[in-house]
Specification:
Layout: E1 2-4, H1 9-19, H2 31-41, E2 48-54, H3 57-60, E3 70-75, H4 80-86, H5 98-109, H6 111-116, H7 118-127, H8 132-143, H9 150-161, H10 172-175, H11 186-194, H12 199-208, E4 215-217, H13 218-225, H14 229-241, E5 246-247, E6 252-254, H15 257-270, H16 273-298, H17 323-347, H18 351-367, H19 370-387, H20 390-406, H21 410-426, H22 430-446, H23 450-467, H24 470-484, H25 490-503, H26 506-523, H27 527-544, H28 547-564, H29 567-584, H30 587-603, H31 607-624, H32 627-643, H33 647-664, H34 667-683, H35 687-704, H36 707-723, H37 729-742
Parallel strand pairs: 1-2, 2-3
Antiparallel strand pairs: 4-6, 5-6
Helix pairs in contact: 1-2, 5-7, 5-8, 7-9, 12-14, 12-15, 13-14, 13-16, 16-17, 16-18, 17-18, 17-19, 18-19, 18-20, 19-20, 20-21, 20-22, 21-22, 22-23, 22-24, 23-24, 24-25, 25-26, 26-27, 26-28, 27-28, 28-29, 28-30, 29-30, 30-31, 30-32, 31-32, 32-33, 32-34, 33-34, 34-35, 34-36, 35-36, 36-37
């Protein structure tokens, strides 16, 4: 027997007694007397009582049968009191699975139709949230149209459910209405839960429909409702208890689209427009400050647009300076934040579009979530051009330029950087102009335009010195070091890094410098010092959770161990570098890690593996216009081919690498390619050419301050002289070998 407990207890007991066959004249008028009669009438019987849609434990208790019988109670609430006082066993029911939803439809309209169109069945299930009632309403509509395809019906339903979808219904709730039986209407079912809410919780439920995206956490909800976080936390838990929300992780909740539509209808009917607008603005303000707090941990001196004055009343997330926690928060909220940008770009208030996009730039630079970055950049550009001031347009152009850099579109990036710089100067923001110029220099460096990059960075350094911006000077010195290395100014690179280290603020910035100091000191032949810098940086690099830094650090460690002849450590570091590089999704980091891995395998005579690594690096480099890496990969392929006796192939790779390096001013790659080509000529017994190339390589390495490369070039020169039976060749060979050993290196020749 079944009864709805939405009726009063006395009425419900009267219905139950009547179903037991009790004469209406014997049924007492008062609820307590009816309960006593109910209990005595069940003595000696075994009954199953189904109590559907219970609102509270108080409603249920008078209706429970005695010993020997049992009850099944369904409710949108947890009814914890029944579990605690009455020994009930709670059986939470989750959302139907796709298969279960398909089963509901199949039972109603026949398995033949659902089996024939599984994709359409899945679409229908998603459209109605896999709610059993909604599925049955859809099934009833389908049963009236046996010739209709499920795909066509799904398309009609989705179209009708979208705003302005045609002449039919304008929401999913309209599409699921049952005109002749309101009890079966989805709105009615939702109202049963909504009407149980207290005023504060009901208001929060309504306002949650204003949140872009389908997930919200406690802090955002507190900002939206303008209420203390503790109160909002209790309200959210109550909504989840009534199945009006679902938990989506600690302190995070989501609502299905149907419930969001119902909440949107209620807020439109019950909350004034200005109150709704104020709630949205509080939420967006909280989002901007929360992202700023997280990005501030990832990049402690981030430079961008000025935030709105004042701090949100709702508590912001706390990260205790731990980058991994800040990154995890951003990863978790990324979808909601991007939804906020896109929604606000359509409906306003527009300043939050470029403010959020500007702050998210610091996250996307790290995470390289390209699709999300593209969405926010496009929204910011459009909104700023249509509604923003000069500063907003500058920041939006900078966001888009950074995106184009990381998606290997350098021409578009450079054009947008130049626009952003011009707009930043017009806006009276020389600090922002310096940031733009710094990022432009990084793009020019990335794509092999080193002379232009160095000129930009020199201007950046001077501008930041005039402005007194220590962080700008820190970045300029750090980036100048990166440019100086490939153009053969190793000592200058080292000096810039020492200046950058003096300006570093905290362990993370110091670690960034030390990673690069490991590289320069290694190139200068100071292997012990290089190893010290790398290991000193490694703990902070690990804490940062920055896969790019980790890949770089392990690359440099692999190269150091390789030159020291420590094969196991070198191979382990090379594998770690590649693992982190793959996680970055950055083609530059991936290609450099492949070259580093190839170099380790080449050094220890694993030629087939080395060739595979260099070929992969070459493919990535050419696909993304990474000229410096391409030259390095070709030099590696030359060495692999030479080791296999394919000297013509080796000469081709080395010649191509040399031409590329000389064309673009890569002094380090020029010296490496000359050395590689000299070895090929030596194998071909062209001793005159080999000696000339060895001399050129030695001079180039020495001029660049690359002592290990210089020593190896001198070794090749001595080997050529020995092969030609030149006087003093043995002495030269011994001296070159001693020079390498003195640097702590092993020879791979």
């Amino acid at each position: 027997m079944a009864v709805s407990t939405s009726t009063y207890t006395a009425t419900a007991l009267g219905l139950l007694l009547a179903q037991l066959g009790i004469d209406p004249d014997r049924i007492p008028a008062h609820a307590d007397e009816r309960r006593a009669l109910w209990q005595t009438s069940l003595v000696g019987r075994r009954a199953l009582v189904v109590l559907d849609n219970a609102r509270s434990a108080q409603q249920v208790r008078p209706l429970l049968p005695g010993a020997g019988s049992c009850a099944v109670v369904t409710s949108r609430s947890r009814l914890s009191g029944l579990t605690i006082r009455d020994g009930a066993r709670s059986v939470p029911l989750g959302e139907l699975t796709d298969a279960e939803a398909a089963g509901v439809l199949a039972k109603a309209i026949g398995g033949a139709r659902t089996t024939a169109e599984p994709d359409a069945v899945a679409r229908l299930g998603r459209a109605c949230g896999r709610l059993p009632l909604a599925l049955r309403i859809i099934a009833e509509q389908l049963s009236r149209h046996p010739s209709a395809t499920l795909a066509g019906f799904a398309a009609d339903f989705e179209r009708a459910a979208s705003p302005g979808g045609g002449t039919g219904p304008h929401s999913s709730l309209d599409a699921l209405a049952v005109a002749d039986d309101p009890v079966c209407d989805v709105r009615t079912v939702f109202s049963w839960s909504y009407e149980q809410l207290d005023a504060g919780t009901a208001r929060l439920f309504r306002l949650l429909s204003l949140v872009p995206g389908d997930v919200v956490d406690t802090g955002a909800a507190a900002a939206l409702a303008d209420r203390p976080a503790a109160e909002v936390r209790a309200c959210l838990a109550g909504l989840a208890g009534l199945h009006l929300l679902e938990e989506d992780g600690p302190g995070r909740y989501r609502a299905h689209d149907l419930l969001r539509e119902y909440a949107a209808e209620r807020t439109a009917a019950e909350d004034p427009a200005d109150a709704r607008g104020a709630a949205v603005e509080r939420l967006l303000t909280w989002y901007v400050h929360a992202v700023d707090a997280a990005v501030g941990v990832l990049a402690s001196r981030w430079n961008g647009l000025t935030l709105p004055t004042g701090t949100p009343a709702a508590p912001l997330p706390e990260f205790d300076g731990i980058p991994a926690d800040a990154l995890a928060w951003l990863d978790c909220h990324c979808t909601a934040l991007v939804a906020a940008v896109e929604h606000t770009a359509r409906q306003g208030p527009y300043p939050y579009v470029w403010l959020l996009a500007d702050r998210l730039r610091g996250y996307f630079w790290r995470s390289l979530r390209v699709a999300e970055w593209q969405a926010t950049a496009n929204a910011a550009l459009a909104a700023a051009d249509a509604h923003g001031d000069v500063g907003a347009r500058a920041a939006a152009a900078l966001t888009a330029a950074d995106l184009h850099t990381h998606t290997s579109r350098p021409d578009d990036a450079v054009q947008l950087y130049r626009r952003a710089g011009r707009l930043a100067r017009e806006a009276g923001r020389p600090d922002l102009a310096a940031t733009v110029l710094n990022n432009l220099a990084g793009t020019l460096w990335r794509f092999g335009r080193l002379v232009e990059s160095a000129a930009c960075l020199t201007e950046v350094l001077e501008l930041n010195q005039r402005l007194g911006r220590s962080h700008g000077q820190f970045s300029a010195h750090l980036n100048l070091a990166a440019v100086c290395m490939p153009i053969g100014r190793t000592q200058d690179a080292h000096d810039h890094l020492l200046k950058s280290l003096a300006l570093a603020d905290g362990r993370q910035e110091s670690a960034r410098v030390m990673i690069n100091l490991a590289r320069t000191t290694h190139a200068m032949g100071r292997l012990d010092e290089a190893l010290w810098y790398a290991h000193r940086a490694l703990p902070a690099v690990r804490e940062s959770n920055d896969t790019t830094w980790q890949a770089d650090c392990h690359c440099y460690l692999a190269a150091i161990y390789c030159d020291r002849g420590e094969q196991d450590l070198a191979e382990s570091e090379a594998q770690a570098a590649l693992r982190f590089a793959e996680a970055t999704q950055d083609p530059l980091v991936q290609a450099e890690s492949l070259v580093a891995g190839g170099a380790v395998r080449l050094h220890f005579a694993h030629y087939a593996d080395a060739g595979s690594f260099f070929l992969r690096a070459l493919s990535v480099a050419r696909e993304n216009g990474l000229l410096h890496v391409e030259a390095g990969a070709r030099t590696g392929l030359a060495a692999v081919a030479a080791a296999a006796g394919r000297t013509e192939e080796a000469a081709g790779h080395a010649t191509a690498a040399l031409a590329l390096a000389q064309e673009h001013g890569f002094a380090d790659r020029t010296a490496e390619a000359q050395l590689a080509l000299g070895r090929v000529r030596f194998l071909q017994r062209d001793l005159a050419a080999a000696e000339e190339l060895a001399d050129c390589a030695a001079d180039a390495h020495e001029a660049a301050g690359l002592r290990i490369g210089h020593a190896r070039s001198m070794l090749l020169h001595a080997q050529v002289r020995a092969a030609a039976d030149a006087p003093s060749a043995a002495t030269a060979l011994a001296e070159a070998t001693a020079l390498l050993a003195g640097l702590g290196c092993t020879a791979r020749e």
